[in-house]
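Morning run. Coffee first, then this:
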Amino acid sequence: MADLKERLIHWGTGESGTRAGTAAESGPAFPYDGSSYDGFSCDGFSCDGFSYDGFSYDGAKTVVLENREHLAAVLRSGVVGADTLVLVPGAPGEEPAADGHRVVGYEGSLAGAGGEFSPGAGFYLQIQGYGISEYMSVAGPTLVRVADDTDFDVFLADADRALLDGTFPDFLTHPAIQLADLPGLGADRTPAAGPRHRLYVDADGAVSTAPGGTRLGTAGDGPDLLDARWQRLNSGTGTTCGVCLGAVVDPGLRETALAARPWLGRYLAALGAIRSLRARGVDGDIRVSGFGGRITETLAAGADADLRDADAPLLLWTDQDVYVHAPAPGRTFSVERTAATPVEALLACGSAEAAAEYADPEHTVRIERFLARAGA
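And here it is:
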């Protein structure tokens, strides 16, 4: 069940490994891994992720069908490999499948908003629309979807507010909640967003990467055809994904909004960092450097290299503690408050050399090297 929950997160968010988080199964912090340097200590908040170096295709990671009638065509098409999880409507639980395919029945639906999905074993995933989520109580693991242009407008307004005054939507920082289709909302498009990783087959047999996605083909189409269409539809869309929300959000509206907000990937990374801290019991007001200000006031204007790089580490703080979160490896470090300024200067300026105006160059160089060794 743990593997199934993890795959659901990756399928729903369109991201792999630590970038997608573990909201469906948040637990205690991982053991301390011994990493430390000059006021840093690593809490080991890491989890394993998929590697795309030397990508070798053996079927999509997860395929979701809304209609069992399309199962045979999908199994014959080449999109299902030995490691593929296929989710189909039916009695919850794993089903015997030909050729070793892993087929799991489920009740409910992963499409739309306001529904519920259950593959059995007492696990339920709520599906909510973005626009109403701030008014809903969190009953358990929840996938929040941008389901139309109105939802998208609300998402943008929330992001703009976070950048302006540092206020993040409470519901999006809850450890049990994940935001769906991140590459369509400003996160970088990686193989995890595409049809070689995740597929959705609607009740009529139309295939895309997500319930709100542009049609890529029909049940039975092979992986090369689906991937070629995905690549073609994404040509000219920059680094984000133009497919996963293409059927529910006006493409022109989306492209214009994202072009005007090149920091949206950073905003999504900040949400993930806050969720990670909340899942480990960090309470109270959590601030993120660059959103509504800096911990170092002299950095408030002009230095914004970190806002343009979604992969750069983030500096977060509460009244008591300071942290650095590295999005790609999913690691979080506690930082002595005296080290906060050189760390923030390094991140905001983009290099130790550029940060010399705000912090001791020797110190920032050593911090830069430590973060590089830590994979940050």
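The first strand starts at residue 36 and ends at 37. Good start to the day.
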